[in-house]
Structure formats: structure tokens, C-alpha cells
Amino acid sequence: MTSNCGQIWTSVSEVIRQRISADGFERWFQGVTVASDDGTKLVLGVPNPIHQFFIESNYLPLVQDAVAEIMGSPRKVQFCAVGSEDTTPVMASHLPSQPSSRATIRERAQVPVSSGMNPRNTFDTFVVGSNNQFAHSAALAIAKTPAKTYNPFFVYGGSGLGKTHLLQAIGHYVIQNQKSAKVVYLSSEQFTNEFIDAIQHGSLVKFRKKYRSADVLMIDDIQFLAGKERSQEEFFHTFNALHDGHKQIVLSSDRPASEIEKLEHRLVSRFEWGMTAELQPPDVETRIAILKKKAESLSIALEPWVIEFLADRIRNNVRRLEGALMRVASYKSLSDREITRDAIENLLRDIFQEQARRAVTIEQIQRKVAEQYDVRLADMTSKRRPANIAFPRQIAMYLSRELTKSSLSDIGDAFGGKDHGTVIHACKLVKRRLEEDEQTRHIVRLLDTQLQR
Amino acid sequence: MKFAVTKEALLDGLQRIQNVVSTRSTLPVLTNALLETTETGVRLTTTDLEVAIRCEITAQVEKAGATTLPARRLASIVRELPASEITIETDAKNISTLRCGSSYFKIFGLAKDEFPAFPSFKEAKTYTIKQSELKDGLRKTSYAISVDETRYVLNGILFSFKENKLTLVATDGRRLALFDSDLEFPRSHERDFIVPTKAITELQRLLSDDGELQISVAENLVSFELNGSQLVSKLVEGNYPNYRQVIPGEAKERVTIEREALLNCVRRVSLLSSDKTSSVRINFTKNNLDITANTPEVGEARESLAVVYRGRDISIAFNPEFLLDPLRNLANDEIHIELIDEMSPGVIKINTPFLYVIMPMRVSV
């Protein structure tokens, strides 16, 4: 203990003495010393744990005020028992410490690995392409200045496109650059579970404190809140508390907020409040870059044609892409044989088959669209042009253009001998409608997913 | 295993032990009760690995043996049975059949071997105490146990056997309840230990007004034997903080108040104390006690009580719940309140060795 600490306590205790009864001061503050002060937290040495319990329960605001007054800035006040034979550890801070909170990282927890975040998911390992460039820059901006730029940040995209990676990258970046920041990362399922637990054990206050004291709250797969009304309500209040307190909120989902069913409107509108970014499936160049980066990080040497082959054949899911790479690499290292195209085909046939099943035909599209809009299949190829037939037909043409490799004139032929200009017009029209009309966007997306299943 | 038992005896036994079983347990066998035949009847045991409890009921044993059955389910079945005579028979696969009048139940159990062994005691110190005395002491102190799990040494009651006295202490950092009782025991038996909350709750359920009980304490276990039941619990590890520090010095003002009248007044007034900074203010003036509460934009309440008081005027604020707890759990007609000043803790006493310290709310500062 330095003399500086002694001086601090003399002045602080003088302030406290004036504000409480002589007996109270004598009883609780006599014998208290300042054990350490590092600028953010002040540790008080108490003769016995009972001092800690009673000062915490009864005089903590007073002590904090006095400390802030004397030292010019507020400190966290903690306690440790000194000079007593009592060996009970009493290092608990005045904040309720949660030994089981895997999802929180505190300054004191030196190893941020225990946060439930994968240490490999950082910005450095994130491969940026045209499909995710926007989301990536937004995330980076947020990580640099949490709560200043985009709040909340809502990122959505299909499975295996890097939502979790992006979220955790923000978390790692913030922890690295602001040691004192409290970053909470968890899935919405975890949130619900802890909430239920808190209700059962009547520890809602503790639960709220945990989330509402976060500087950055990141919730993964928020779509699982759908239909859970009480959790939504609790989250709504948590959201407001954090947003009002200028704390960063980051959310991820597999679909846009407006399309999550059974999600309250007030939540939807809040999710759309800040920045919304979509992650799309990577294009072929990005896929190659991802594979190269992954291969490099795992120190796998693969011929360029293998990487290109994999990138060409697996399109929609980065996780699957990486899985395929691992499989090929382990096959190579275990079997000692030269990799051939056939060997890969054989090795990854289940993945390829699944991809192949997605190859849709124009006829399937026509049938699906006709079914959706409740028109006859024959109308798809007819020359009749009332709006209720023409528009579905145009959507079907658009989908054929997007989902098959057929040429414009092939598509025209399949729709009853239409001219390629008609197809171009249909595609343009549908695209414009997609931008303008929510309803159309919803239906087309629905058809799209159903066809690709 | 096969035995016959009366519905009353079995239900009584199950009700004594069933509260210990954990509802959400990682070990399925812990939701079960162990049934073992003895020479004179059947012994029922449950445990959650922290607290274990067993009791013996009289039964006619036809074939010795043991099995485990879901405790709560068994209790609900027995409660609903139509007749008095119950026969339970268990086969080698731990499937038990329960017959009673026209009812027939088949219940799947688990093997006895999976059930944790009942803790054994070595080198224990034993004390004998009247049940009514301990029951009274626990009732007067247990409400003050801390529920804050970060202060785990306070999550129980301190049993302090010192100088031919048993002292029970519970505190949560805002109030403290202390109960003393004279007791004869050898000097070598002086010891302090902390009994966790769950064991206290179960013990209170078992205690009756007559007879004695035996308390045995070993290194890290305590056992309570009473009325043919035995409750064994782990002790809370660590040392209880120096509670004497909390008890204020000499009081300046002392006033005697009717317990029930004060209880009712505080209860009514507390309806208008706000949830957040819940407090009621107690104002002593000459021969009068005013209890007030107010919440901005909600309203205010005031109760007056005639008392014999000639001291100086004092106005002090307390959390109403902390004030109500001892008032509810004491049985005396009159209590004594001792005060020093507005900022110092208040003390509630009765004519027998009991003390309750309550810290004032610092509402005005």
C-alpha cells in the first residue's frame, strides 16, 4: 500500500464521516483501507467480510459518490478482506458476478476465448467479395466506433454465408481495442433459455443487469425469437435500454426482419432502424479466394485446378465449401494417391448430388408459378395477355432466366414461341417490380427457395 | 422385494422426504426415492447430493429387498389411492407393482445400486436439543437468510455452539436475526458451522413441538435425527463473518409496541411505498408513532399508533418487508424497538433471547 492510497482514503473517509452517523462510521469505516487503485477500480481492504457485506448493501452509493468527488471520476468499488484470520474469499465486485456466464467477457477475464466466440472468426480471416463487401465495411465501421455509426446493425443471409463470423469478428475487434468494453455474444436461443431460467429462479434482476450493462450486445440467429412472446418482450426492453444508453446492438438472422413470422412489429421496426446488410452467396472468384485462404490457414497444398473445380461445383454455402476442401485434403493426406477429378467426384458425390438436385427446369418453374398464382399451366404458353395471366408468365420467365442456363430464345420457345425481346422485357419488368413492391419480392423469394429445395 | 403398508404411513413417509428430490436433475436416479426393507418396516431415502433425508415407516415385509421409484409420482399415486392397505412388489428388473383395493399400478424404477450411498458419520460431535426450541429459533431467524448467491457464506444459518449456548444467526447485509438458547454440552463440543438454506427448509418441515432431536456434526456434514427421520446435509464451506460487528451499541431510545398492531399498520402503509425505493418512515413523537409512506404521483399513506414514548423525536426509514418479517414470525404480544438516531440501525427485541438488527434506508441523503 502506498502513501498515496492512504491519502486517498483519508480524504474519502472524511467525506463519508460527514454524511453518516458517528456510530455508523466508527462501526463500518474504521479500519478500512485502500488496497489499490488503478484508475478504474478502487479496492478497499476491510477487516472482515461482514464489513464488505454491510458496506455493499447499505453504503455503496455513498462510498461511490465520495470516491468520485475526491478523485474526480467514478470508480468501480471492490473489496478484499485483509488482516483477518478469516480466509473466505471475498473478491467479488459489487456487480453481481456470474461465474457461469460463458457469454460475457469482462476485463478481468483475461482469456477472451471463454466468451463462446470462436477465436478464428476475426476480420483478418473474413474473405471479402462483392457479395459481402457492404456488410463487411459496415461491420468494420461498427467495430471501430461501437454505437456511433450504425445502431442497431442487422445482418442477414442464408446458412453458411458468414453471419456468425462477422458478428464474432466485431466482438473480437472491440475486445482487442477497448479492454474495458463488455461484449456479450450469444444466440437468441441462449437468450431465451437464460430468460426462462431467470423466471424460474426469480433472478430477473440479475438477468437484466447482465444484458443491460453490456457495451456491445450481439445476438445471433434472432429469427428463433419468433413466436416466443415473453422473450420478445424482454428483448424489446433490453433493446430499448441499450439503444437509449448508446450501446451497440448487432443482430443476425437468416432472413430480413420483415419476413420473420410471429415477430412483433415494434421489434421489426427497431431492427430495421439502423443499418441492414445482406450477405449473399459468394461469386466464383470469392469462392476461390475463400478456398485459398482456408487452405493456407490449414497449410494444405492443393493444385489450383482442384480449388477451381470445388469453387465451380459448390455454390451456395461457404461452410459446405470448406467442408469439401477438408474432405479432399484429408483424402489426399491419408490415401497417398494422386487426386483425380473422378476421385473428387466420388468423394464428394453426396454434396454434388444435392447441388445437382437444384438444377431446375423451365417446366418445373412454370408449374410452380402456375400453382402459386392459381392459373392453368396452359396459360404459361398461351398467347392470352390479361394481367392476371401475363404477370405470372413474366415472373416464370424471369425465374427461368435466373435459375436455368437456358438462352433467351430457348426460354421464349418454352413459353409458347415468344420472341427473345419479350423475355428481356419480362425480366426487366419483374426486376423493377421486385425493387418497388414488397408483395412481389416476397412471392418471388418464396418461389425461388421452393424451386431450389 | 415385497411389503404391505398402510396408506397413511406410506404417504406420511413420502411427504417427509419428497421435497428433497430435484426437479431438474442431471442424474435421473436423484428424482427417485430409495425404498429398502428393514426388520420392522421400510426405509425411504431421497437425496440431491447436497441434502439427504431418510425415514422409516412400519410395514409388513414379506420379502426383503430394495429398489428406487420416482418419488413425486409415487407420492401422487399414494395420495389418490382408494383403500388403506397397499402392497408393493418389485421384480428383478426393478419394475414395481402397487396394489390397493381395486387399483393396480405398474411403475418402472431404477436399480438400487445407482442410488448414492447415504453419508456416513465419523468422529461426529453430538448435541441433544428440544425440537420446540430449535423450531422456534429457526422460525425467528430463517427469513433473514441471504438469497444472494455471490455471498454464499450467508446462504444459510450459523449454528454456533459456544459457552453452553446455541446461537443461530442469519443475515443478508441489510438485517440480521439472532437467536440464543441455553444448552448443556461439553467444552470440547464448541463449534461453529453453517447449515445451508435448503437443509433449513427441510428441517423446519420435519420439526414438531414435542420431543428432542440429535444434531451430529462431522468435518463437513451435519445430521439431524428426529421422529424416526434423519436429515443429512453438507455444510456451507467457509467461515461466517463476524456478526457481532453488526449489533449496535447502547440504545438511546426504547419503546414497547403491540406486535400485531404494528404489523397491520406497516402492512397497510407499505401498500403505498414505491416498488423501486421501497421504504416506510417511522416517526416517533411524544406518546405517538406515525408510520408513513409516499410515492410521487401515486399517493401517500399514514397510520398512527398510540405508544408510551417520552424520548426525543426520531424519524427513520426502513424497508417495510424487513420490518414485517420479524413481526410475522414472532409470537409475542409485545416487542421492543431500540433506536439510536436516524442513520443508525434499529433493533427489535423481545423478552426472550432474540435480536433483530435492521439497517435504515438512506432515503434523504
Can you offer a commentary on this structure?
The complex is a heterodimer of chains A (453) and B (365). With 453 residues, chain A is of the alpha/beta class. Chain A is built from 20 helices and 9 strands. Chain A has a 6-stranded mixed sheet with strand order 4-6-7-8-5-9, sandwiched between helices. The mean pLDDT of chain B is 90. Chain B has helices at 7-17, 71-80, 131-141, 197-206, 259-269, 320-329, and strands spanning 2-6, 32-37, 41-47, 51-58, 60-63, 66-70, 85-90, 95-100, 103-108, 125-130, 156-162, 165-171, 175-182, 191-196, 212-217, 221-226, 229-234, 253-258, 280-285, 288-295, 299-306, 314-318, 334-339, 346-349, 354-358. In chain B, helix 1 (7-17) runs antiparallel to helix 2 and helix 5 runs antiparallel to helix 6 (320-329). The A-B interface holds A 19-21, 23-24, 27, 48-51, 53-54, 56-59, 61-62, 86-88, 92, 96-97 and B 148, 150-151, 153-154, 171-174, 238-239, 241-243, 245-246, 248-249, 340-344, 359, 362, 365.
Identify the notable features of this structure and list them briefly.
heterodimer; A: 453 residues; alpha/beta; 6-stranded mixed β-sheet; 3-stranded mixed β-sheet; B: 365 residues; alpha+beta; 8-stranded antiparallel β-sheet
What is this entry, summarized?
The complex is a heterodimer of chains A (453) and B (365). Chain A is α/β, with parallel strands linked by helices.
Q: Give helix % range of chain A.
A: 55-70%
Distance N to C terminus of chain B:
70 Å
Low-confidence stretches of chain A: 84-114
Total of helices of chain A: 20
Radius of gyration of chain A: 30 Å
Number of helices of chain B: 6
Order of helix and strand elements from N to C terminus of chain A: HHEEHEEHEHEHHEHEHEHHHHHHHHHHH
**Oligomer state of the chains in this structure:** heterodimer
